[in-house]
Design brief:
Structural class: alpha+beta
Distance between the termini: 53 Å
Helix content: 25-40%
CATH superfamily of the largest domain: Electron Transport, Fmn-binding Protein, Chain A
Largest sheet: 8 strands, antiparallel
Shape: globular
CATH class of the largest domain: Mainly Beta
CATH architecture of the largest domain: Roll
Number of strands: 11
Number of helices: 7
Order of helices and strands: HEEEEHEEHEEHHHEEEH
Number of domains: 2
Radius of gyration: 21 Å
CATH topology of the largest domain: Pnp Oxidase, Chain A
């Protein structure tokens, strides 16, 4: 045991859980879309084998993906949609985040299903976070039938590849409030400052760290684990080397990342 009374194997498990939670958050943060699972509000009943089913049937639909600073999923749903009607009878949902794109064998790629309870939110930050990721949604976000929602995670089922499967409690996935509070409060100022005064650095991030060409990239969002950049309809995610717990952490990492990005761009030019 160490001075805190923890056994080495407990420390190893805690580190493993932390890494697995980070993998789930990375899938959530990087997703442009997700598959939403709800339970049908009404379903026909019938005997087995008749094809009518017995009890509520699971219903899956494609939704736009965004998340709060701690990793909690954020959605924009219409009351006219079938999945929203389902929520009137049961607030339990699941979301599949698929990170298998680009894999020759998709089942070797990472994906995570998160489960929890969904509820409407009027928190301005949630609206801002969602629309920063999906600016075209501003065209209909204020329609009477649309509302923003936040999912409170109960657990996550991570499949990181063949044989790499684990179920995590929701608290093992989300960042604690003490980590996200300062960054969440400063996000708008950070994004505005970078776009107004350091556009060259933002372009450098896209080219040197993500291998993307073009100029005029804009920072769309910032959270404790990375930044989202946009050029036209293209959105990319660049992770920080470590979790930022303070605004100064972000400033330091953005400066270091700009230097790294410019060095990478020079090497590629030679």
């Amino acid at each position: 045991m160490n001075d805190s009374g923890e056994r080495p194997e407990d420390q190893d498990q805690a580190a493993t859980n932390e890494d697995q939670g980070r993998q789930v958050r990375a899938l959530i943060r990087g997703a442009v879309t997700a598959t939403l699972g709800t339970l049908e509000a009404a379903a026909p009943a019938g005997p087995p084998g008749t094809g009518t089913g017995r009890g509520p049937a699971p219903y899956c639909s494609l939704v736009l993906g965004a998340c709060d600073h701690d990793g909690s999923p954020l959605l924009l749903l219409s009351t006219l949609a079938r999945h929203t009607a389902n929520l009137g009878g049961n607030d339990a949902v699941s979301l599949l985040y698929d990170g298998t794109g680009g894999y020759d064998e998709p089942l070797t790629g990472p994906r995570a299903t998160v489960l929890g309870a969904i509820a409407p939110t009027t928190e301005p930050r949630h609206r801002d976070r969602f629309l920063a990721r999906h600016p075209s949604a501003a065209q209909y976000a204020d329609f009477a039938d649309f509302s923003f929602y936040r999912v409170t995670l109960r657990e996550a089922h991570l499949v990181a590849g063949f044989g790499r499967i684990v179920t995590l409690a929701g608290e093992a996935v989300l960042l604690p409030s003490g980590v996200v509070t300062a960054v969440a409060a400063a996000e708008a100022d950070i994004v505005e400052h970078m776009n107004a005064d350091h556009g060259d650095a933002v372009d450098a991030y896209a080219r040197g760290l993500a291998g993307r060409e073009g100029s005029g990239w804009r920072m769309a969002a910032c959270d404790p684990e990375g930044i989202d950049l946009r050029l036209g309809s293209t959105l990319i995610r660049i992770a920080f080397p470590a979790i930022a717990e303070t605004v100064q952490d972000i400033r330091t990492m953005l400066v270091d990342m700009a230097q790294e990005a410019r060095q990478a761009a020079r090497r590629s030019d030679n």
